Fold each of these.
Amino acid sequence: MVGPAAPEGFGPGAAELGQKFASQAYKGYRLRQEKKKNGNGPTSAFGTFEKLQQWKQKHPDATCKDFVSNDIVCVTLQTDWMKQQLIPDMSGITEPLGGLLTDAAHKYWEDPNGRLIVTSIYSPLIQKWIPVLFSYANGSTAPHYEYHFLILIESIAEVAADRGISFKDEHLLGVVDFSDPQRIGFEGAYCTYFLAQPNDSRLEVQLRAAAKKLLKGCLFHYIKAVERIAKMSTMVDPTTKSEFRELAISLPKLQTLTEFHDVVSQIRQKWPCASSWLNWWLNIDHAAMLFECMRAMPSHLASKLPETTNPEEAMHATIHRAVGKDHPLFAGLDGLLVVIKWYRQQVQNAQFGIKNHYGKSGQEALARERRKGRNEGNPPYSFKKLKTTRPAHSKRITIASLKKRKLWNHREKSSVHHSLRLLVDSKSSTDSTYVPGSHSDADLSISLDSASVNDSNVDVSLVPGLEANSKTQNTLTGAQQKLRHMSPSKLNAQPAESQFHAIQLSTTHELPGLAWSNNSCWLDSSLEALFCPMAFYGSFAEFKSIVTTAEENPSSPSPLYCLYLAFQFRMAEGVNKFQRPSLGPVPPFQQPAEEISNIRDAFREILHETHIVRGKVGTYQMPLGWLDYLIPNDVPCCDFFKPHILQLWKCVHGGTGMQHCLITPHIKPIGWSPLGRQWDHHHGKIQSWFSFLCQPSLAVTVKAEMGCWRKEIENDRIVGVCLGSSQAIELITEIPVILIITPDMWYPTDKHWDFPMRLLPGSEAAAKKGVVYELVSCIFFGHQHYITHMAIPTTSRAKAVFIHDGMEFQGYSQYAKGKVADLLAGAQPPCAPGFTTFSAIYKLKGGADAQQKFQVQQQALIKSTLDIDFESLPIPALDSPDWIQCSSSKRSREYNFASSGVPTKLFVDAPFPLTPTGPIGDDFQLGDPKELSDQSESITGLLLSTLELDHEFTSPAPVIPFADSNFSISSSPLPSSPHHILCRCGVESNGYRENIEQMTVQCSICKNYTHTSCLTMRFTSQIPKHFECDDCKLPEVQHVLRDDFAHFKNTLAGLRTQKLGSIASRLFPGKGILVRQGGTYYYPARLITWDKKSKIGTVEMWRGIQSPAAAGGIIHNVTLPDIVDGLWQDQAGRRTIRLGLYIRPLEEQLSKQEVEDDLLVDPTAVRCSSEIAAVLQPHRVLLTELAINPEKFSLKQVPALAFQNSKDLIGGNATYYTGGLLATQVAEVNNWIHTKIPMAETLNMNTMLRTTIAHARTLLVAHLFHSELTADMVDGNLEQKVLEKAWERLKDWTGRTTTGKLRPKIIDVNFEAISLLDKIMFDESDRAGVAGNHQWGLDVGPHELAWTPQINHQSVTTAKQREGNDEETMHGKNYDFGAEHYEMEHAKELKKKQKASK
């Protein structure tokens, strides 16, 4: 190969230049390097531009603006969070901590000329100065600072506009050092910005004069300069340096010019060599920022600012310690993001009430110093104090350790300033007072007059070449061009949350979410389902506007404001910054997904502390129920989530034609949904149910009562009630932006509601205007766990479904292939096995505008259909001449039908204590019932009148449309098992409503079934073919059986080696196992179900586990990787398992207590089946009157009355008897009575239902065993005898099975399984081998709280103990000693807390 062309041919080739150029690979390498130098490679300027673009795309939440000119290169960095801190609430701060501090740090960038310009502001929440703007500058000239301050002013103006407040000069007050570039740069930025504002008529000379009044100099810099000069013997005689120091330091505080000039003259006469130094400080620009008698800034503003920029200097040191020095551009920007994140965490923790420090805060420590008469944070004025307060050199620390470090608790003394004069001319003595100008649109529209000129203290007429009237158009145009040139990206800047509008599915297959922690799935699913419409459908802006406007004190936020803060953080963080650790390396302290979960934990604590959620943290709750309590009906945000309805009651008495109606507006709770009994009427269609509520022409009866809301009251007693029967219709009058529908979960599981993708409140024409709901997310429930499906918009204009399960994929939502309508909508969308729709979340497409459109149209439609006028708010009025208003209140209006010959009221006497009730229905909040006095006789008429079924009366009155009610009694749900279960664990049922579906085995003798998971005395899944339950074994065998388990456990007969790798083959129901919780520790549990195909099971955790969240609970969907057993004789396997802290079975101190059955206490626990309802319905009147007037009946009619006055140990409570009935049947009877007997809850509180309940059970026993009870009877009074025998069986068989046998002894099967596991794990006999010698966790790390399960605990070894050696218990090379130290320290802290609590 020849070389380049030359005058005499060609130059030498590459090979002739050197031997290494003979290699083609080397020549190619060198050519590529040369091309890079010429600007074509990634390290060239073009490569830098590309990297800058990539960095901006990676961090869309960080506004990064760059500016390059002939003189300067600047890059600014500001996040949305930093911008929001620019105008803090300083109302409660009395110290001089206001304004902005600005200074430049050296050595942060690797560029020797590079500077890091930082502006910070004081945060009252954390009592620290926080950064609000960073800038890289390739120098420290005035243009560099001008660009920095210009971006700062623009940001403050934007924040003021967003908050709807006036942008004033007070927002720009700041403290700087005496660097001329800083001062000139600020003045230039101030002029550049306001010259470009068309509504600001001030001229440049006026703007510069105004800018000078906004800067205050750093007093500490001046004092340090005095100290340096005092030490220079060539300038100050050492014998007089104290006097020099005293006079020089007094200059800034002198109040009059006369005193000031006298001191200046003394200094110049005594120390003439220091005159040039003093003249620099007396320069008009410097003096106007420092000396009180010459300061341009008004005294009342200067007193609000600190005297020093030392906090800014301290921040520079913090940045250097946290992320180091000498950074390249992009590494430095990443480091600044780390610093921003840490400060943001501090502020957010304070907002959520989480302490950022140990012991006293800096503010508290400062107050203590003041009480001691210290220097109050001012820079010391003497050399001795300066020397003793010099900061010590600190070791390099990380950002994690900064959380325990006080970054700065230096506070400045608030000086009492008097009125100041602006020295325009050094010889002038004219006093003036400056009032900061306002730059809001309203203020800037005022033309410049003489007053505004005087405010700026500049006589424009004296400035040649300028007109005093107005700013010229050329000046305005030029300033706007300069502004656009210096800040080109500000017009195109978009908020961080814009990235949520659509995702690119080709690159995004998962979204950040909340990781499960301590039973948090109820809150995780709620927040994920709500965040979807907030982030991806544009609802956050409306939600933010409502919440922030209504919040009275953001520094002490309400729980609703905390919810906004949680959403705001996720919006600010965006999506791109969230990276799951398993998908690649994550930089330190940049794991926002984990921070989302931390904020969730803080928000959950707030819900518990404010009693919005009951119980302790970690208790099981319902999704979205907390949101209804979080948003009461009297807050503006209520309309955003809750629909408004109009309820119209109408009462008719069939015999007389009496009619009256009641109009009551209501706000429905969050999660409002159709009742299960309405499924048949609407054929399971949510759209049908919603249409009937939104369209008056389709309105149907939603409630029907055989009673009325009317009552007569005298002396706080109900003395009469109306005899009519009432019905109600409901119509939606206002729809929310976010509609949450939660179907009736207790209705039969074979009737699922069909949720559409589009939900129409009105017509298709209205839908085109945005009045239509879109299904955006659904919460699914199953196996005591909640997951969320979300419809996420994509860039292809389609939607994709992402599934969030906090227990999977570290909380990250995963993309699910398939159509959105198939995965989200319908009656039974495909989901995880066993899960059904719990809630559906709809978003109103048109937002608040569509909400307003619907309200106007709906009110007009109701007016034309029902003659109801909405102008008389808050309670609408019935505008019809046939109906006359008879009463009104804050909640309702009542009307009588006016017709001759028709009564307006019809009451029956019913003296009764006043209970504040309305129409009986789901939406009326009843007051706490008062205790009843003895009024059994007088209450009879009240309750029985509600049972009278009147004939329909045809009236000439105008008809308010009440369609016929369509109520049906629900049928029984399908059983989880079709067998009669009588298990050794104490459970007896017919298979209905078992909480957990599990395998059973039939006894070959009694034919009853036993749970296989309760057969713990085995090492394999094999069960004898001819199985006999404990109850059927011979008495002598039963006696042996009680001791047989202890023998089986001690001998471990038939137990073989259990290797870790073959655990799947050894799992079966009833086996004691270890289950991993939280990814680290394993806890004991009993396996209840196990699916060999999917390798998923259900477990019951051991009650002795010390973690409350894991103790004694049922956990579903436990997978094989999280399960191990006792690993008998497997030394290597045991060394890899770390154990969680629990009480070993032999040491358990908890005595087994009888727990009251919830089924017998809660009348809503089980719905009454159609079979039992059919038995009791014919006796409804009798059972009702029996509660009120039992003396009316004889023992032959009600055998249970024999127990009414019994004085035995039971105390006359006939409900004790349950013989012959299952617990579920007893609960169904209880449910029927409380739903069908009027005022049942009140009667029950006064023990008036006992005989009714007992007789209802008697009737059910008589029905169930009718053929058996009538076997030996002859004709004649047959039914009476059946009742008597049924009552006797109810008494005699109490405590027995439904077949009359004595109940077998209840076995603690969980204790058996864990005891057997404990023996296998900790046996130290020769048979156990080396695996029994304290091997658990030796290769990985310590156990929870560093506990030692085999030391100082009761031994389970019954055979000869094996003698081991120390080498067997040596730690492996991967053992985590750091974790051991942490666990030990954590254990010590817990012991101290426990000791202190005692």
Amino acid sequence: MNKFIYLFILVLILKSTFALDTKVIEVNNQLSISSLDNIETKVYITIDSSISTPKVSINHIKGSIESLDDVVYFKDNTIHLGDVKTMFNLGSSDETLSSSNRLGFNLISLVGIFMVSLFTMKSTGSNFKLLLLFGVFSLIYIHALDVTGVGLDINIRVPIGYSFEKLDLQLKNAQVDLQSLIVANLVINNCIDTMADDSIFIKSLYVSKSLKICSNNNVMIDGFNHRSDGASYEVKSTNGDVSVKVAGDYKGSIKFTAASAPSMTGSCDYDSSTSMGKQVITGSCADSIASSFTIDAPNGEITWTSNIPSGSCPTTASWRESAQPFDGPVSPPIPASTPAVNTVYSSLSDWRLMEDSDTIVVLDQGAIKVPLAKWGPADWFLCRTGFTSTLTKDLVYKFSFDFKLGAALSGITITKVSVVILDYPWGPFNVTRGWGVAESEIQQEFISPDTFTSLDWVSRTITIQPTNSFRSGMVLGLRVKMSAGSGDTLPVFYFRNMTFTTPTRSSTPSGLITADSKVVTLRKPSTSLQPQDYSLCPHLQSGLKHWHDPSTWPGASVPLPNSVITLPANTKVLVSSCSLSTDTYQKIIVPATSELIFSDAPIVLNVKDIYVEGKFYIGSKDCRLNSTVQVNFYGAKTTTDTISSMMGSKGIGVSKTGFLSINGKQYHNTWSRLAQSAFPGDTLIFVQDNINWEVGQEVVLTTSTWKDEFTKQNEVRKISAIQGKKVLLDKPLNFLHFASEDYQVEVGLLSRRIVFKSMDGLNDFFGGHVLMMGEGQISGLQLINMGQQNIKARYPLHFHLAKTLTSSYISDCSVYQSFYRCFTIHGTNNVNVERNVAYDVYGHCYYLEDGVEENNTIAYNLAAYVHTIGTPAAGEGQPGEMFYESAALRQPADSAAGGFYITNAYNRIYGNAASGGWASYSFPNLKIPIGFHSNLTSINPSSRTTLEFDGNSAHSSGYHFWFGSCIYVGGNLSTQSDGTLAYKSGRVDRDTVDYNNPQVTVWMRFSNIKVSLCSSGIGHWGNTIEVVKYESHDNKVAGTVFGEALLDQALVNAKSANIEVDKSLAPNWGFQFYDTWTHTILTNIKWKNFHPRVGAENPHEDNKIIVSMTHSDIYKPQGISAVKNFTFDNCDVSQYVGHRIQDTGASRYFNYVDFDGSSVGSSGTPKLIGSHSSWWNYSSSCQFQADWNAYYCNKVSGQEVVNIDVEAPGLIDPDVLVDVPNNSIRGKTTLFKYGQADQTKSAVVTSNVGITGISNVGWYLYLNNSSPASFRIHTRLIPYGTYILLAIRYPAGTLFNINTFYQWDYQNSKKFILSQGASADVVLQGNGKQYYYFDGQHLYIKLVNHLLTGASTEYFERNGVKIYSISTGFYYIISATCPGGNCAVSDVYPSFN
């Protein structure tokens, strides 16, 4: 028993050694922070566009305390730091040791405990009490020392443009680093402790009333902006240097002293003198001075008083506010390791008993009570509900708890106790299988049963080191096995302090991912920032007039916000931070000859409408602003055009003559991929690319699951610290975000310094919008809550009917929580949309609207978490569903909303990433343009091929529709007779041709594509496609491509290490060959991680590489599939082919040609793979592979897969199709010739047309009981140089008329009349258009397609693999006159061999 108390004391001592905490306090515009003790403090400011009131985040970063409440107390808008419990009588003192003192003291304490325990081993009486007292006093002593060594990080987070009335910082030991601070009265006193030597740094300070700063070390103010008359300013250093750079045209008095000669730049008049050994300068800066000044005073003090008219900005034409800093807040250091996280599960709702009785877990005196029935279960589990942590292989976790019995067990013996991890145990109880625990107990750690016999509380800590990684959603529990009870005492178990500990992790791990792909190249933008030339800044040019200067406006009066404000003609108006009212401006108009220009200063504009016919600058291409600027849009939902005609309301409209330039600080990269998986509970993440992101900015981590819309595992976090490629988040993650060498999810930067945000109308999904009909240059802009759902042309950022532009772009912007789309190109060409991030969006995101948009560049963008509008398009059949335009769905294709919506493929699309959406990339078919261009009926957008589609990636999509995919080429959008739109979501063919020569086919080409977590990686309903360099990971099927299709240089990985892969993604298929008419070539493909799926009832439920399509008897495969150069990595041979045996033609005739034998593991020898039917056992080289249900044979040169249709009315009728062949068997085909000695190599013939087999051999066709008197044979696939020797049974004495016929040969040049030959061999040696032979039992015809010449148009060939084209229209017509009109015959095998 004493051992447990020792352990308890030890835990308490160690617990007091390390602790970290975070506290967030909401404050108002009068904030004070006061240090009561010498706590090391860092104070800084972060601009946060996501909040509306200031918040102070306090992080414990150094030393040890029990809780931040011990050293932080908030009262009357003052934050007190120090021993607040003692100072304010809040309870017992919780002062703690510094980390170094604490550790040293604890080591002494442990030695003491050890020595006493040795003595106690000999005597357990008073010595035990002594030990207990020693432990208690040790803990008290630990908590009785000062707080020296404790460090706090204080982040004052403020909205864009926020102004404090008062900020008072009374600090003892603090580093102060502030930027972009707007305040009326500022006090920073860092001189309280004369020993403190921290400096004060301030960038861009705006003070309207008073300033008083004192420091024992350096004070530097870079960019001091003054606001009013009579304000006083004082900056003092007792031991360091003072440097102040005043921005703008300062007017007023100055005075400063220094230990040595101070320096001053500027044009103020001053006198110099000496006083008490210091240099003293006094003077003034007159109204005529037109420059800022800088003072450097070693060991000095500066005072000055401004002389500006109260309540206004300077109006001197040359006055400008100081440039804002490019650099963001200085990041605090990232700890060497992330701390261990203890999660205590003490609530009754945390636990559930899993067994077959009606026992209910209750809470009793703070403990979990498990009262079992008298004859309780022999095996029961106490399980943690909602355990969301993932468990990572080889990491060491801990589970600790206290336990006791309610009473001694009577007649019950505990036989086994274990901590278990279960996979979904909450199913219904089954008498024979129980709860399925045996199948789902995937990890266990044993505990001694003796633990569970104590009537006193016993503590246990169990170490768990998983041998595999486990996904979130697993269940943590205690499993107890015991003998059945026989006594009268009811077993009652108590548990408390149930704690799960996630281990500490290094901040510098090894094995970070440096390459995002293995086969493909995912293109990335240039690593350099865009060059800047600040001499070209619009706000620094001469000739500007200040908005706040009455002389700028007619009538010498600054217009009020509640009026329609039109800038004066031929005028360039400059807006500064002090120019605008905080009220909402109704409408601002920029005439064609005027310009509205924002200064590089913190500006907030509240507005309803802005109409630009001239120019509107918030920065420029060569002069990106570093300041924070926020434009807030207001306005209730309406369809009235309040901006201008056809431009709607609540936003910015730019006419054809107008120009919009919004260019904020460039962040690069705007998104990256994880370099290591981030697990639930993690706060530190690692990215692959160099970034210049900042503390306080928001990022989004995309999902690692398939069904993105349902699992909702995208997460937004703020950056707390950043160091190179390491990013520390403000709070732990809730979900796994996966990264491995296979694929990695994205991390996108949401924040920008320039923000457009909608402030009302959110419940109506009615935000602001930006519409540009002329040139526009937009970069570094964040758009929040923008777009007006189901109102066309009201999108967050939108080029509208601007035709062909020359210098327009949207670059490194972000769209967050959009009501309607992201970035739209409508009726506009030659626009660059690059490096943008979009997250949480309704409707298609990157959007080409009408189908006429071409030669645009969409590159290096990220789209994530895209939602359909209304019910997602679904359906299990190929046609999909129909959707029609309505008020609730103005663009019916939004029922299939995707990240990138490409109505015209003739654009450059590269380097993008898409997460989520109905599809990631959607290429709908528009046979005619829509919308404003629906009258251009000569244009067929769907006939345009990809100009460039390269280096793009996609994941977590394609699950709404049975045939959905991450890259989806399909669906059809059209204009109905009433002018409204209709959308069909499913299969629609697409023919892509040369624009200048429509008779020439051009292939859709996709290169360097990476897809993961998709229903199908790429789905293409069109007729010509090439996919070159392709990676598929964790997809249900790697791809589904129709028409003439090539998949080349690919890696197909059935299963990665992602533990969050949805079970519904199984089975995993490599590629399913279609059952008719397509031409599919697969070359140079590596297949990886294909293993048998437990419980698969047929091959189509298993993880297979090549999969047959076998459901139909109507649709039957011809010779349409071929492969070459397959390799396998960790794949079972049994999984190479998955053919399902069904009573259908598609199943009987499944086949493909392997041009080098690699797909069956015998590289170098071409193979023909056929179905289970002996029909494909055509030579002695054939072998049957039972795991595949298929034959594979050596393919002889010149021997090909051929196909014919036998059309016999009443027997085999092409116009009467029966998909389920009930009673539809009409006969059989059997091979003869080339040594076919037996008659078993046959396949049944049904009432549906179509027979496929091997060429250059004999086919014996026997139709049950009676051969047809009249029929025809359609030679659909008999390639040039091949033939079929067809034998058909007829009664002796039958006469024949046989000729050929070409359906479209109106001159009968292809009509050949056949006559009786001398022998079957004569027929065989002939050309198929001269002779037939009847030997009294069998009619022999050599079937040849005489249309063919061997031209290159007769086959599809890529990479040395050839598939012959189906050629329709050429027939053999047979008429038979049987004796007595009776063609009944028995089945007799042909004698010709």
